[in-house]
């Protein structure tokens, strides 16, 4: 079990997930934190927007890159309601996010538990570090 200091971040993820569901999307929410503060957040918008890339994790990453004006997010942590999919896992590795914490595994398309462990396999992309990964909090 991780530190209970993550509890407020998971609460925010659940609020974002509820908003996502109200908009007709899967209930997924994500936040990026740096120095103990939320710097960006995202909710799942793929279904309602018609844009398959609008996953909560990628929405949060896009916002962080815009806000911080850098593509190096190595001092950030991603907290999300669901295991990042393979697409999101690639983005997490690309932006060098140092830690990922998620509540629910998604073995069909997850970047850790599926047959395509993009997030957790160090041989997948040796130029990009594997983040610290935690299931649950």
TrEMBL record:
Annotated CMP/dCMP-type deaminase domain residues: 4-114
Record keyword Zinc present: yes
SUPFAM superfamilies tied to this protein: Cytidine deaminase-like
Nucleus is among the record's keywords: no
Listed Pfam families: dCMP_cyt_deam_1
InterPro entries (alphabetical): APOBEC/CMP_deaminase_Zn-bd (IPR016192), CMP_dCMP_dom (IPR002125), Cytidine_deaminase-like (IPR016193)
GO molecular function annotation: hydrolase activity; zinc ion binding
UniProt entry keywords in alphabetical sequence: Metal-binding, Zinc
PANTHER family: CYTOSINE DEAMINASE FAMILY MEMBER, TRNA(ADENINE(34)) DEAMINASE, CHLOROPLASTIC
Protein name: CMP/dCMP deaminase zinc-binding protein
Organism: Haliscomenobacter hydrossis (strain ATCC 27775 / DSM 1100 / LMG 10767 / O)
């Amino acid at each position: 079990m991780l530190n209970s200091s993550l509890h407020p971040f998971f609460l925010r993820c659940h609020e974002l997930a509820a908003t996502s569901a109200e908009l007709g999307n899967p209930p997924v929410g994500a936040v990026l934190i740096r120095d103990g503060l939320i710097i960006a957040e995202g909710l799942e918008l793929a279904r309602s927007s018609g844009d398959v890339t609008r996953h909560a994790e990628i929405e949060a990453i896009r916002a962080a890159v815009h806000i911080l004006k850098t593509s190096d997010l190595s001092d950030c942590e991603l907290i999300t309601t669901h295991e990042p999919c393979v697409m999101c896992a690639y983005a997490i590795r690309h932006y060098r996010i140092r830690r990922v914490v998620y509540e629910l595994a998604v073995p069909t398309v997850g970047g850790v538990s599926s047959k395509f462990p993009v997030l957790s396999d160090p041989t997948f992309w040796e130029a990009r570090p594997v983040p610290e990964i935690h299931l649950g909090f």
